[in-house]
Here is the input.
Amino acid sequence: MAVQQLENYARPEQWTGLELVDTDVHINLPGLKNLFPYLEARWRDYITESGMGGLPSNLYPSNAPNLFLDGSRPEQGPAGSSLELLQGQLLDPWQLQYAILNCTYAIDSIHNDDLAAALARALNRWQLHEWLEQDDRLRGSAVLPLQNPAFAAKEVEWAAEHSQFVQVTVPSRSREPLGRRGFWPIYKAAQAAGFVVGVQAGGSSGNPTTPVGWPTYFVEDYVNVPLAFQTQLMSFVTEGVFVEFPELKVATIEGGFSWLPPMMWRFDKDWKGLRREVPWVERPPSEVIRDHVRMTIAPLDRPDDPQQLLEVIDQLMCDDMLMFSTDYPHAHFANSADALPTGIPDELRTKIMSGNAHTTYRRLS
Here is the structure.
């Protein structure tokens, strides 16, 4: 098919010659039956006989306007379901060295542990054979059946056997905080494999998406996305995940970053008074977060005054945390030059564009 070029969506001229790693590129399953070649007969029969439909992410309603780039949807299937479009609209015009794929299929919404594990296995094998093995610039994130950490750890071990995978992903809106000890078999396997644990925006936990209950409107739900990330980072630190797994890196994907400095200020302040409750947290939480947490930059919460965003970045007090991302095929900026904060120093720009990704994703190259 003829690939439509997206207007103002390509590598800006001023980035010529610089390495560029996109740490958040979305792929979508065209339909549940696309997984049938990777499922056992019992599960194919189960899905057919039950009339089970698809499991698309609930964070981006498929028909909502302005959420996807115009021209990024193939003739059949949802946006992000065409490798040819991904190559022609992102990989080639942006001249990416690598693109890290994330598949936000709502396997976490399933209450049957065995079915969730079967679908996660099938989804990861579909991703490997139909995406990662088709283009050397692609790297994958294995989806995990978080319902059962033992099953999830086995999937981590399978993914570790394939060099194309660099990350495992879990939803930010999980059924319980991700630092809980029950999840630790996942982190043990991820650290052993050299995987980053990507906490991806979204999830179908069944819990209200705000601390005070269910919102009325989608705009409330969307603006509240960072609340889940704040909760998860506090859980990782206070439960002692990074003490038990000192080499583990966590990447927050599609959650923004401008909220982090004030959260770290409050976290440090209250830790000083309550640290006896969590004696294993021997350092200020902000130090732990800076050492172990990385963040994709899209969507970029950009104030009208560019200087204000630069001040927020300075308040992170760490040049290693931010990683470039487009979040393709989602529409977060009208002009490619707006994908990065304006006015950042050249050295920091280079780290954001590729250096931090290479340091974080040990399996990247």
Q: What stands out?
A: The two ends are 31 Å apart (CA to CA). The chain has a mean pLDDT of 94. The first strand starts at residue 21 and ends at 27.
